[in-house]
Amino acid sequence: MTARAREMVLEGMRRIPGGSFFMGAEEFDAEEGPVRRVEVEDFWIDAHPVTVADFRRFVRATGHVTVAERPPDRSEYPDADAGMLVPGSLVFRPCRGPVDLRDVRNWWAYVPGATWARPEGPASDTYTRGRHPVTQVAYEDALAYAAWAGKELPTEAEWEHAARGGLETAVFAWGDEFAPNGRMMANTWQGEFPWQNLLSDGYAGTSPAGAFPPNGYGLYDVTGNVWEWTCDDGRSNGAAPPCCAPTAPGAHIPRRVIKGGSHLCAPNYCLRYRPAARQFETIDTSTSHIGFRCVVRAANRIA
Ligand SMILES: [Ca+2]
Predict the structure, then answer these.
(1) Main-chain phi, psi angles of 256, to 5 degrees
(2) Secondary structure percentages of the chain, helix, strand, coil, to 5
(3) Distance of CA 42 from the midpoint of ligand 1 (Å)
(4) Ordered DSSP codes for 29-43
(5) For the packed helices 139-148 and 52-62, what is the interaxial angle rounded to 10 degrees?
(6) Cα(131) to centroid of ligand 1, in Å?
(7) pLDDT tens for residues 176-200?
(8) Is 294 within 8 Å of 155 (Cβ atoms)?
């Protein structure tokens, strides 16, 4: 690779020093523990999640058709209604009042025509959201984008090490206090999920990349805003049932760990806007609150 090509790939990325760090947490959800020392090599990671504008460049260059734009395979969903076997994706719908938090169908709807460019369905668009993280991308779409960009998806350990920003064992990516001096540090949900969004952080849905302060490694939106795909299946730590991430029918479908929580994570339901938090998402699922960012590893000799 020429020096110029390397420069272009690494533009907008931050170099993360390798070494060992404490991964996981023990005071929140069982699937995050135990806290253990984990080693990672040096790597570069995108300073912010891949944006709608980034993804649009990828689609224009490659003609990529996302999973959400293709009809679901009936053999994968033998029990599904015919109405569900059309191209579409999962869209969050706020409720009018308190609902049973054990049933995610109260706030997730499968919307035909919802895509990365129309995240809430055919009547929506992204013309003013070019700087927002891309959503409605399944694992395969994230992999395809990464390959096109000359990058890869992070492992869970790489992602968490980067998200911690050099702060050992802190609860949040910026420290132990949620809103230091009253300052909101990430796009989460304030109020009672899924019906009362107090908007103390100014955003009901996604926010433009970089709207909140970066962490110690100069990374924006590592927690909150959107969940991010990693390439890990998380089996080594045992998969626990997901809370706020919608579970598609089809338990046989492989899963990958998603990290970081989203604008839908609220203290009363899913306090997942923390580096240690993790969920297990089926690889063909796309939603209005899952995106991704990429890495470049020192070991692949780009340097
Ligand atoms: Ca918010």
Answers:
(1) -130, 155
(2) 20, 15, 60
(3) 32
(4) -GGG-S-EEEEE--E
(5) 70
(6) 16
(7) 999 999 999 999 999 999 999 999 9
(8) no
Where do runs of H (alpha helix) occur along the chain?
Answer: 3-10, 52-62, 139-148, 156-164
Interval between CA 197 and ligand 1 midpoint (Å): 8
Cα of 187 from ligand 1 centre, angstroms: 4
Residue 34 Cα, ligand 1 centroid: separation in angstroms? 30
Centre of ligand 1 from the C-alpha of residue 86, in Å = 31
pLDDT, residue 221, reads: 98
Ligand 1 mean position, distance from CA 150 (Å): 32
Rounded to whole angstroms, what are the CA distances from 287 to 1, 93, 108, 115? 36, 12, 9, 9
Q: Give the tens place of pLDDT for each residue, 71-121.
A: 988 888 888 888 789 999 999 999 999 999 999 999 999 999 999 999 999
pLDDT at 226 over 50: yes
Phi, psi at residue 92, to the nearest 5°?
Answer: -75, 135
Strands 19-23 vs 36-40: parallel, antiparallel or unpaired:
antiparallel
Q: Which residue is listed with tokens 């089926």?
A: 282
Distance (Å) from CA 76 to ligand 1 centroid: 34
Distance 225 CA to ligand 1 centre (A): 8
CA-CA distances (angstroms) from residue 242 to 122, 248, 281? 28, 11, 8
Of 188, 225, 227, the C-alpha closest to 209 is 225
Ligand 1 center to 207 CA (angstroms)? 8
Angstrom distance (rounded) from CA 95 to CA 82: 26
Q: What confidence score (pLDDT) does residue 244 get?
A: 57
250 CA to centre of ligand 1 in angstroms: 31
